[in-house]
Amino acid sequence: MRTSARNALPGIVKAINQGPISAEVDLEIAPGMTICAIVTKRSVAALDLKPGRKATALIKSNFVLLARDVDAGKVSARNCLAGVVTNVMDGPINSELTLDLGGGLELTAVITGGSVQALGLKPGERASALIKASHIILAVD
Amino acid sequence: MRTSARNALPGIVKAINQGPISAEVDLEIAPGMTICAIVTKRSVAALDLKPGRKATALIKSNFVLLARDVDAGKVSARNCLAGVVTNVMDGPINSELTLDLGGGLELTAVITGGSVQALGLKPGERASALIKASHIILAVD
Amino acid sequence: MRTSARNALPGIVKAINQGPISAEVDLEIAPGMTICAIVTKRSVAALDLKPGRKATALIKSNFVLLARDVDAGKVSARNCLAGVVTNVMDGPINSELTLDLGGGLELTAVITGGSVQALGLKPGERASALIKASHIILAVD
């Protein structure tokens, strides 16, 4: 399966916290780097998600917020990934940015050109990607 | 009511699965074609949603992922609609694609140009739309 | 902390409705104007959210739908903010619109150019912003 999601981060399911409708799934995408996805309980069953299972987090680039001087403890977005901007491609309304997260991991974000200007984002600048858990889709092989 | 959501799919509520905060609503948009939306329990009450009630699923085009060679059983997105690409309109960052789902149903997706290239999407190619249930808004008349 | 979210609406937490995984947080952003965000229960704890606490709602511009002739009681989006279009900036695929909500509040939305045309949106026209509670990120100082 190939998808249009510009971000496909493979990992290992570490923990699942099930509710009556939704479930939180913690996925380790690098040593010590865990991301959290909220999917439905039905999807946990359908994909047979459980600790130790390989899964891939699919994240559309326009679901990614970029932030500077972020304090992860002060924002409800469950995923906050720090990195360095490596590329900025500007369009008339939106811009596409690439963030190097280290360890060979990259993330693509699409934000408005207005925000690129306001945050002074350009190659070499540090930024963090904020992603709500409910915006992540999980896929298995 | 008219909205900017490029996708407005009318249907009939088939089932509702209520949790303490959220509810899953299954909406039949064509014979045998059901989509799932997650809305709040409060919205289910406010809109008086129940089996048999007409409702329309509103889906912003930038919430739609496109995929090829998809196995719906291996992705957590609760909605996977197969179709054929009928139109591609390219911008500098984003592209807008139209997918013919058959039965007179169409879906519009906005994805990055990078993904259009990577997936080789062009008119005549088969693709599936992946939409997370929590990204769908329901409206009633 | 500065983020790429074009909309950052400060307010006061008025109520929290906790479920096993998610929580609804009502945030008053102006007298009598409350918006609802769904965040995880874990985030409520991590940010120490409780009635009376200051928090800021972060809303990416591409999560905002615009609607005309909207009846808030007939749509599941928990947030419906009425205003007047003050600016439209067109790109080849997407357009960026500014909505004056009154009381000094503004909202930026990115929707497709096709929708701008279909809805006849231009400066001076009334429109409402529809935002799903699950698309809002909360931040605290």
TrEMBL record, chains A, B, C:
Residues 2-68, 74-140 form the Mop domain. The keyword Nucleus does not apply. GO terms for biological process: molybdate ion transport. Transmembrane segments: none annotated. Keywords: Molybdenum. The keyword Cell wall biogenesis/degradation does not apply. NCBIfam families: Mop (TIGR00638). This is Molybdenum-pterin-binding protein MopA.
